[in-house]
Amino acid sequence: MSTPLDTPGDGGTALLDRELEKLLEEEHVEPGDHERFSHYVKKEKILESAITGKPVRALCGKKWTPGRDPEKFPVCPTCKEIYESLNK
Would you list the DSSP string of 65-82? Predict the structure, then answer.
C-alpha cells in the first residue's frame, strides 16, 4: 500500500497548483480598452473578484481582473450609456 509521501506529485499542493493552472487557462480575459477606461460592474462582483481573483464582466461586456484605481481613468462611454439607459 502506498502513502501520500510515496507519490508527492499526486496530491497536496501539486494537485492544487494543477487545478489552479487549469482554471486560469479556462478564464479568457479579453484584451482591449480596459486599460484606458473605468468600467461599470456590480459592487458584489468587484468584492468577489478581490477575494477570489476571478475576472469580472462590465456592462459593456469587457472581462478583466480589476487591479487599478478606477478614479484615475475616464468612464467607459459604452458602460455609461448602458447604465444611463437602465435608470430610465
Answer: ---S-GGGSPBPHHHHHH
